[in-house]
Batch of 2 targets.
Target 1
Amino acid sequence: MRIAFLGLGLMGGPMARHVLAGGHALTVWNRSAAKSAPFAERGATVAASPAEAVREAELVILMLENGPIVEAVLFGSGADAAIPPGAVVVDMSSIKPAEAQDHAARLGQRGVRHVDAPVSGGTTAAEGGTLAIMAGGEAEAFALAEPVLRLMGRAVLVGPHGAGQLAKLANQLIVGATIGAVAEALLMAERGGADPAKVREALRGGFAESRILDLHAQRMIDRDFATRGRCVTHLKDLDNALDAAGRMGMAALPYTALTADLYRGLIAADGDPDHSGLLLELERRNPR
Amino acid sequence: MRIAFLGLGLMGGPMARHVLAGGHALTVWNRSAAKSAPFAERGATVAASPAEAVREAELVILMLENGPIVEAVLFGSGADAAIPPGAVVVDMSSIKPAEAQDHAARLGQRGVRHVDAPVSGGTTAAEGGTLAIMAGGEAEAFALAEPVLRLMGRAVLVGPHGAGQLAKLANQLIVGATIGAVAEALLMAERGGADPAKVREALRGGFAESRILDLHAQRMIDRDFATRGRCVTHLKDLDNALDAAGRMGMAALPYTALTADLYRGLIAADGDPDHSGLLLELERRNPR
């Protein structure tokens, strides 16, 4: 398949490599050209602009920072007019559900199909080709994209346009609240004289088992808050969830609101550490 | 090893069967004698009272409902005076950390050692011999009990007397908050037009992965709130966590307090459904 891949950052880079390794005719574009060079060496075409990249594409994949950047690259650069009618745009960036719905509608007017397909799993899963991919859009367009998505992870169509982004917000809500609850649990155990590392080990395999207890609890125990998952990004996602819920008339997302409040306190005091730094905020709220 | 096992209920029954299958000389006691009969058929000795059960034990295992019942069976029945000095009491019941510390101190005066070792994983893990066992006490007593505990699951010594119970409360805090967050996420996704079953499927393998997303999310999707994990028990554990934290001077356990508040609302409206019923309470707080 002729595929254009726009955005070769920490996530997009390894994802595009999996697509290329899958034997597809790949054209790449990245804002800073240096990141495209390794792809040229492996046989990909390097485009000078988004519009040039998408001109002959059957599938256009985006992996960009946020909604406004997707807007600029897709619509502000003239790329939208260059995409062949009938092609499918798969936007794997994490943006607002309402933005994804807007993009789908505008591309649809030109006969270009849209699938929102944000991911979870971080750079480790991007590199391993094991991302959780949450897709929204029409079944036919998803079916066309799915064999390519499968090179990057496991994709599930969860609903209509925007539903993939909504599922990503649901994902972020669970991840944030689980980090907070694990931090609260380890702090309570430690203050009561238990060894947090042993508690983590003891809890594994029981009902408290989670990826967060595996990865993030270890960071808390090591007090290693070097940023892998950004608090600022996570807070943005939680605020987007509260905003999206508000638009649906949902008044009460108490776990989301609590976690957003803790992130706000953490960011005010500590800048932008790893999101497992919620422990620091809970420690602050419980002075010795 | 000569082992006495007191309490053959939904959890204790399968746990005692694993101990018997491990080749130990087992004496069992249960409040209602009917549950002892199958053990007699398999070669265990059935005792008529707790005191009779423990008389020659090197290891005494308790699996009872709560702290007051442990108090009654262990101290109110004269069993404590019948346990040979040097023996180890392993209390696998879920009781308050302060109660476990009290029991350890009182037994210690008679030269009987105490390990608190509550479990997580429910009846499935009890039957499979795959419980997560959180132990508190002295290393030597734990080392003596550990080969027997291993027949029932995986045991980790997390700290001094009471620390196992504290770890269990930490476990319950994480489990409750994760159930709440998963319910909130699925509700938001559903209200936004996504298919909750597909969202659960899409999220699996990402950072939101957990035992709760596996088991409890499925119950929410099936709207199957038949009680496997009781809300009333879970709320009792959360209140015990808040109480224990208060004794340590911890003012803020916000995830625990939020989850306890939701359980209180749920119990007031719906009685005592499965703890995955937190979805019902969140639905009520977000009328359509």
Target 2
Amino acid sequence: MTLASPLQTKPLTDEELRKINAYWRAANYLSVGQIYLLDNPLLREPLKLEHVKPRLLGHWGTTPGLNFIYAHLNRVIKKYDLNTIYIAGPGHGGPGLVANTYLEGTYTKYYHNISQDAEGIQKLFKQFSFPGGIPSHVAPETPGSIHEGGELGYALVHAFGAAFDNPDLIVAAVVGDGEAETGALATSWHSNKFLNPVHDGAVLPILHLNGYKIANPTVLARISHEELESLFVGYGYKPYFVEGDDPADVHQQMAATLDIAIAQIQSIQREARVHGFTERPQWPMIVLRTPKGWTGPKEVDGKKTEGFWRSHQVPFGNISKQPEHLKLLEDWMKSYKPEELFDANGTLIPELAELAPKGHRRMGDNPHANGGLLLCDLKMPDFQKYAVDVLKPGQAIAEATQVAGKFLRDIMQLNQESRNFRILGPDETVSNRLGAVLEVTNRDWAAQILPEDDHLSPDGRVMEILSETNCQGWLEGYLLTGRHGFFSCYEAFIHIIDSMFNQHAKWLKTTRDIPWRKPIASLNYLLTSHVWRQDHNGFSHQDPGFIDHVVNKKAEIVRVYLPPDANTLLSVTDHCLRSRNYVNVIVAGKQPALQYLNMDAAIKHCTKGIGIWEWASNDQDGEPDVVMACAGDIPTLETLAAVDILRQHFPELKVRVVNVVDLMTLQPKSEHPHGLSEKDFDTIFTTDKHIIFAFHGYPWLIHRLTYRHTNHNQLHVRGYKEEGTTTTPFDMVVLNELDRFHLVMDVIDRVPKLGYRAAYVKQQLQDKLIEHKHYIERYGDDMPEIRDWKWPY
Amino acid sequence: MTLASPLQTKPLTDEELRKINAYWRAANYLSVGQIYLLDNPLLREPLKLEHVKPRLLGHWGTTPGLNFIYAHLNRVIKKYDLNTIYIAGPGHGGPGLVANTYLEGTYTKYYHNISQDAEGIQKLFKQFSFPGGIPSHVAPETPGSIHEGGELGYALVHAFGAAFDNPDLIVAAVVGDGEAETGALATSWHSNKFLNPVHDGAVLPILHLNGYKIANPTVLARISHEELESLFVGYGYKPYFVEGDDPADVHQQMAATLDIAIAQIQSIQREARVHGFTERPQWPMIVLRTPKGWTGPKEVDGKKTEGFWRSHQVPFGNISKQPEHLKLLEDWMKSYKPEELFDANGTLIPELAELAPKGHRRMGDNPHANGGLLLCDLKMPDFQKYAVDVLKPGQAIAEATQVAGKFLRDIMQLNQESRNFRILGPDETVSNRLGAVLEVTNRDWAAQILPEDDHLSPDGRVMEILSETNCQGWLEGYLLTGRHGFFSCYEAFIHIIDSMFNQHAKWLKTTRDIPWRKPIASLNYLLTSHVWRQDHNGFSHQDPGFIDHVVNKKAEIVRVYLPPDANTLLSVTDHCLRSRNYVNVIVAGKQPALQYLNMDAAIKHCTKGIGIWEWASNDQDGEPDVVMACAGDIPTLETLAAVDILRQHFPELKVRVVNVVDLMTLQPKSEHPHGLSEKDFDTIFTTDKHIIFAFHGYPWLIHRLTYRHTNHNQLHVRGYKEEGTTTTPFDMVVLNELDRFHLVMDVIDRVPKLGYRAAYVKQQLQDKLIEHKHYIERYGDDMPEIRDWKWPY
């Protein structure tokens, strides 16, 4: 152990050592019991086959380490009256967190049937990884958790998200050495460059170096001590090493190290809170190197197990066929001496029970880990104040996200004091035209600042790093602990966090059925710099498929909005920021674009989520001949321009224009709560007329949503079909046949009543496309008549 | 600069310095020209507005640094006769790589119209970021590139992928300090723990610390020198710092440092190749700290530009409205003194041209960067040798991936000498039951090895790290340089590389239209440990949506296979490993499961991709009453069990069983080359009978693929609908209503001819489901009659 200060190296008295070790034994006992036992929970009769679960599911390897850390955190929480939550990166070690929250009493608080006696322990054991019971990982069902830990890599970034703006909180983040190999975890160490000790809490990373993954050693366990130390110094931490396999020795080391770490954290905070932020401190972190499956069987069937990857999951099974395994299990569990830990009733004996903190200081009952308890509504200005004047549709020009930026600026301003709102983006807030927020706050930056720097401050509330995983993880941690946020991202690269979104959506879905979990603020994405306007970047930056990914998740969780202009974007943004327990995806452009709806119309349109645009339609006196539908800003523009062409050439054609803001309205009502009824869908789209649908994303998504509707067979969708490069804005839509000319040709090809002129017009349009191609290849820009088109009616 | 050896610190003579600087000036000149100019390429007449592009698109900031590195790499390639490729992490700096490959002559070799004279330069300038021209990033169109660089974070992992098994190759990997913040990049530094100097090449990372991203400083530029140095020492490198803004000084530093780095690489390799691998060496890496937009305008409109984020893209535009900007551009370009660099003809003068390497030593013409040129077929054993005996369908039990593992083992064995095949997985090769490969090779591990370690060796060809991004990136780099690979992954977590897959698929799509790019081996995924068998892990590990993501990409690139058993998996695996330029996704289970097809039948079935299983059907004498379709191993099992129930209760019902291996057969032929013709689809699925489709993934994917087919309205799909937890295998299908009982009820609800017994049978099935629920909650395992069901006919 590297000791930085002259604190005592054996801070525990013999009595304290004996007790903390006994507490740890109790947690280990309960962990093994969960994995293995159906009955005979306290081994008060000889262990028989029928006491053992028929299917053994769970992960032992990481669990004793998680239990060890929990016991020691309990000690310092009591000693220093700390406000602490525990993030279990190796969340597979579910039995450990369940055991500890049971020992401290919170499990019984939330699940009355799991009482603090032998019967409760039996139920605790049986329910684990058992049908109708609880999952094998740390999960939403586990009190004190904000982190599932099934998908590895996010422990540290969640911890920082939780610590921001929670000055009194210390987040203990246990990082597994397996997950430390993931990309997300590797970059999340740099989160310390964004943490301000004045008004943020602290994160105490504990790298649990148990050496092995499923079948391999871990990288960090097999580099030299010097490299490991350098790595964490390089990441900006002061690493302390706690290493060994003799419990008594490691207990003393861990206690001494935690005393130092807490002292350092408190000293850093005191200094910063008295004198203000001066420079980024070197925060402590702990490397805990102990055996995998510590205290488990040393060998199974003659093969090394403790301290090796073989103890990763269930160290041995096959109990029905190998009776010696039954004996091994009994001996193992009895090695914890349960008779010394639990009284006749099966209740943890008082001298151990009192080692746990009380009330909300218990890590399982800390309200920060049930963020909905602490959630306050955002103070919101009236979004209508930011309305763009739209006297006539399709005339005025505005940049939608730039308008939304002013709204976000004032939300930021109104909630500065409550410090419960942050805006995140991978270096793109200004690029995405949300720069107005920098009028009232800065970019968060706790690393070096130079005089020429622009809006950088350790007090900033705009968080930018070129890491989508950090942005996503920080935001998740922030929301899960009861705050609000807004994440803007280039549309194509949000796929980098596809898997993180999955896990958050799954968390939200599960919490809906857990009564004691209170609703949290929705996770709000603004996807901009989208597929149709990647002028600088081209093909690699073109992918509108995140919404396809999102709609695979439970309908009750996901919402997708495609506001066509600034006022609709304002209305949608307001709605999303007020919502709870959803993932809201908003897709909107940042470039100067035509505006269609004044604020009243925008609110009405967004409230319905879909509607006929009467002002653009000419079917007022009956059924239309064709429905021109659109979703997304550029498809809306091209649809209206197509309608203009249709009107010029076929004035007698009755065209209905339908715009979709809320994509989920297209699904049947049975599939999504926002879905239109069959009748409403038929009223809007007719039951038998052709529908030409211009869509922002991949066209088949619209088919997928609508295939059950009556008129689906007449639906023809244009969208992005993976054609693109660095070219002009209009050429992008032409390459994907989403442009006005193709849309008109789609009508011509389908609607029979257009008569003899149809072929002639089609030829004209094809000529126009050739003219366009020649023009851009000569001049490098779109033809003015296309670029400057406005709605002429 | 930290110098490790007494090499001279000013290795360049004045003459050499003058020349290398002139070469750099030429590259910078050509880079600026590409961004700005339409005409007047050598500024031989005064610059006028009409010479400037109307739309200015591109990224200047990183470009001078990329050019600087290129010039210095040219020098050491010539000096030491190196075999080197260049990976431009900041691939936005496309103009730099285009300029350099033009200067060295490779650009003209591949694009004859871009000649080495003034006319060629004019075309070079015009085509950049121009409609009908080339993209703004380093792209497949750029000679010498294997790396698009539009999506940041993969430079280093691609470099290592390229270096594995290429002992003579030095991969210079320029890492941008922006991309260094991404998760993928942050963990890819650890790739050095997998590189063996005996038989792998070297990677020389060059961190280009130009300090800024789009609008922010970079994290690594704003930590102390000590932390930065510690970080790279911690990652296992020996960092050298080259820092400054005075070109003459930085040229000398860079030359000296490259001399040292090359000497160290060669010394490490010599030592290892003579004495064998003993311990992981400390490879050199370079930190190059130079101004962003170096040599560009110092200020624009009074605002700091050189050495600041304002030079990230186009440092100034608006040339038509601000005439002083035209002057600024002319002065800037003339500062490079083009008249000294290009002769009257517009050709680079000989004394500079000779600084570039010749032939394949040119980084733009290195065959490793056009891997198809070097690609050799894998030696493949006859996959039929590994066949599982299937005397009767649905009787034998086998673990499909375990069988495939033996096939992979022998492929590995046959190609050991050619060293052109690797197997990758995030710590899951054995867990995914491919462990047989370890009979002939080991896991690659160049970090510390302990005596108890299991199949770890620096010579291993199985690559495991708990980082899907590293696995994906290594494999991409390996394939792009002309080798073969196979990536097995837990199905749910392959989403972590969704975005990387996107970029690779886009690369493949683009290369199909580039005649000089030769086809490379396909990227093969085996997704196993799939949604239906997550007994240990539960909900967080359940997501079959990667195939939804994949099918959004171009049909000519993607293939998706769902082999129902071991023999079909063998046939599909054989096919995928022989294919070129695709992304193949295979989804198959690893658990013991029923086997259906003997090898002959499996080959026939896989060749067609879809087929009626006559042996399971009883409609031989005419049209069926219902079609029971299935795709995926578990859905196939449940479908057959449902058919069994149907036969017992409704022996007169004519049931057709259809199994789909190749998912793309379901699309119309117009949408995918594997798609069935409308006639064939109708023959299989009928035009009017109900189809009950049991699908492995999200059910709407089947609708999305089939919505254009005649009988789509009668199609009813069951699949995963985000219901799951840690429970029994059969309970998982019940939770998602994909089980045999629900499938039978789906038939009962739809097929009218079942008569009076239907309601009675349905009640029986509902009772069965309740009985199942009670059984598993009591015993924790599935009822034997379900667990042990076999096809009884």
